[in-house]
Amino acid sequence: MNASASLVENLDRGPLSKDEMAALVARDIPHGSYVNLGIGQPTLVADHLPEGSGVVLHTENGMLNMGPAAAPGQVDPDLTNAGKIPVTELPGAAYFHHADSFAMMRGGHLDICVLGAFQVSAAGDLANWHTGARDAIPAVGGAMDLAIGAKKVFVMMTLFAKDGSPKLVRECSCPLTGPGCVDRVYTDLATFSVGPEGATVLETFGIPYDVLAARLDVPLTPANEARIPSVK
After folding, report:
1. Computed from CA positions of residues 222, 185, 69, 58, in that sequence, does the dihedral angle turn out positive or negative?
2. Which of 9, 51, 60, 171 is labelled catalytic?
3. Which UniProt keywords are given for this protein, alphabetically ordered (predicted)?
4. Residue 89 falls in the annotated catalytic set
5. pLDDT tens readout for residues 176-226
6. pLDDT digits 0-9 by tens, 125-179
7. Which residues share a beta bridge with 127?
């Protein structure tokens, strides 16, 4: 447990761009972790891992030690991540059957997964496969396996939806992907620790803590008043 963390209010920067959010996630991934990056925004994390991080990226379509996105001239049409984005391979990369990949996910062999979300509750419930709307197209993929199988779950998302509704909520109204599985939430306006103790604000970006708390219908605790589970 981290008993002495302090809330950091970054009032000179923010809201964060997708790449800035990805850089924060990359910063908090411990050296040598085995990590799965979900489809969409989380794939950007691969581009922000520093050389020598020792992080081994797993993609559910069957690859270990995936590198950053492929630059022009590096594209191999047979080498993509689960989101069908051309990627590179790092020394020691390995390939395997889709079923073996899911066995890694379900077997507890991944230290961290980074996922997008429609909603996350203060208790760490995750909703990211269906909005519940009648005309919405559900996308289950491997999120349920990752949410339960990974040792830690990080979520990367905007804090508010396009209609202005908050995505960090007391209780998820969208169908759940997994209950109580999320540990950290990285957004454009703030970073949170979530779980049985509720939502703790670790950092804010371009918004004071008091204003953030007023905009969310979720009880918040500043980091300096809470005990925060470590991700190390």
Report:
1. positive
2. 60
3. Transferase
4. no
5. 999 999 999 999 999 999 999 999 999 999 999 999 999 999 999 999 876
6. 999 998 878 888 777 778 999 999 999 999 999 999 999 999 999 999 999 999 9
7. 119
